Amino acid sequence: MQDVHSDSLVSGNSGGDGSPLVARLRKLLFRRMLVGVSDGRFFLGVFHCIDKQGNIILQDAVEYRSVRQSSSSPMEQRCLGLILIPARCRSSCHVECSIDEQMSLLSLNK
């Protein structure tokens, strides 16, 4: 999975559809994305969109959370569908892709 710093994608002036930031985000559309939140949960779903504040919307999302506090405890999962993950709660963001795709997406980290 490729690590994505979406804060850098939504910052700055993203004037319109011709913006380089919009072009970068279009590369992420409909890719599977794993998003971690500050309370330890993870959400795996298909990237649908991101707004100027950095909130991410995933479709067909599944929530994964630890049943107990210990690191070796099993993960519990539940299907959620369409969800919005607020930017202030997000701790990590990764895109699922092949090695070749990772190389082409490296420009997203800049």
From TrEMBL:
Residue ranges of domain Sm in the record: 25-85
One Gene Ontology term, aspect cellular component: NatC complex
InterPro entries xref list: LSM_dom_sf, LSMD1_Sm, Sm_dom_euk/arc, snRNP_SmB/NAA38-like
Top-level taxon: Eukaryota
A Pfam family of this chain: LSM
Name of this protein: Sm domain-containing protein
Organism phylogeny: Eukaryota, Viridiplantae, Streptophyta, Embryophyta, Tracheophyta
